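Dear Dr. V.,

Thank you for agreeing to look over these. As mentioned in my earlier message, I'm a first-year student in the group and I'm still getting used to reading structure tokens, so any feedback on how I've presented them would be very welcome. I ran two proteins. I've put each sequence directly above its structure. The first is here:
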Amino acid sequence: MGEDPAQREWAAWRFPTQANPHIARAEIEALRAALPLRAYEQEMEARFIEEVTGALWKYGQIEALRVASTGELARLVVAIDPAVSAHASSDETGIIGCGVDRRSPAHGYVLADASGTYSPDRWARAAIALYRSLAADCIVAEANQGGEMVAFTLKTVDP
């Protein structure tokens, strides 16, 4: 016997953008050219991307080690590892929000991941938005590739 649809808590459907008759094909092609491949596949083709090609850590590994926070976090930071370009084959700019456990400072927690293939303006805006949403203490950046450039870009976007 099938499940009664009224008893389900949720349902999901996938509809690629091409299925929408009100969006011009030329607009879809322009987005294909403008978006990084993974973003296009996920956002326009309605594909759930479980693994990132070339990723050092796979989702299964992360999930196997996931633990709940005590809720007592100290020193909330947003960290940026900027990429040097922003086209389809570029590395992602890493942007994460994390905190240290107040009771056990040896334990840190990743609270959010806003990484993506961004222009400098876009990664700065993403980092600042994450900083605000977490009420973080500061934004830190990798010094060997970015350093002063990251500080300048952030201050240009939001003094």
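The second protein is here, in the same arrangement:
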Amino acid sequence: MSDAATSPTHEPPPAQPLPRNVKVLGLVSLFNDIGSEMIYPLLPYFLINVLGGNKLWLGIIEGLADSAASLLKLWSGGRSDQAGSRKGFVLVGYVMTALVRPLIGITVAPWQLFLIRISDRLGKGIRTAPRDALIADSTDPRNRGRAFGFHRAMDHIGAAVGPLIMAGLLLLWPNALETIFLWTIVPGVAVIALLVFGLREAPATSPPKEKVRLTLAPFDRNFKLYLVALIVFTLGNSSDAFLLIRAGELGVSKEMLPVLWCVFHVVKSTGNFTLGAAVDRFGPRPFLFGGWLFYAGVYLAFGLVTEETGAWTVWVFFLAYALYYSMTEPAEKTFVAILVGAERKGLAYGWYNFALGIATLPASLIFGFLYYQFDAITAFGWSAAQALAATVILFFVRENQELRTNGEQRRIRNETAP
């Protein structure tokens, strides 16, 4: 298997089973998201109604937690390049989350929840970039889209199953949120067992000769421009919680919102798995262009639709929004591997996740301000405009031709070697 990135062709990639590491990390994401989504929908209610916090506390907790995770993703990606090893970072990150998440069930004050959420997100920061690099290291370059699509599909399945388990536990213990939170230790134990007994270190690439620094200097103009496009797009891609608010405004009852959210994740999962393989065949660029333009259209629709059209339109738009995720999630990560060399994949995925992270917080603040001060069409129109601007920037991003040539030559040598 080649360590360098190769450019996809229009010839169908050879049918190959997904590597062991990809399957293991997919199951890990499934169980991790089950535990996460058993808590996340109830977290604001728990903070405000049980712990006596307020919306300011919620903003502080989630904003600082995500910011800390973004910074750590950058460090851990580069450090895994220098170490020539990814598994240790992945294991530590997931174990941190698995062990601290159930502690929410014994918190009695907002500051305790703050510490737990920070620890949870720090675990995510440690594992994310090395995990993405490990998937790329473990997979034939011609099948990376399918590998990333499978991983995201399993993640979304977990996000759909978690709320259903939460609903079942609420039927058993209607007034015992703390008990439900403690039950997240079960998927956490499954995550740890899968990593310890199932994950393998990928064939080592040569570590960079010089000390890894958290800088963009090793990368060319195209990768930097790609990060700019991602930041511009993400500044218009606010929290999906606003879409749930919009769904409520347009007539979806609170009883049906969890069902809508579950179906949304099921469609995302199916689409990621299906279109991930298509990314390998046609390359990531068409899916990024199409996905971002599709996003602009869907967000405009969310802003323009009125209550008179009926709640059924919300279901249509939500399913269309899920298709946007399916088109872009495998493509975004596959494009990173195409733009950078083998020695810098960890650092590259660190910058990729860092770019998304630093734009996420202001994105929600800007969208919320526009939604509150003006109206839905202003807020959703802003997001659509950002997506169009990002698409224009993406047009000027080109693949590294030298990496394409070298990667193809190494692949041929590997395939013909005795």
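From my reading of the second output: The two ends are 13 Å apart (CA to CA). The chain has a mean pLDDT of 81. Does that match how you would interpret it?

Kind regards,
E.
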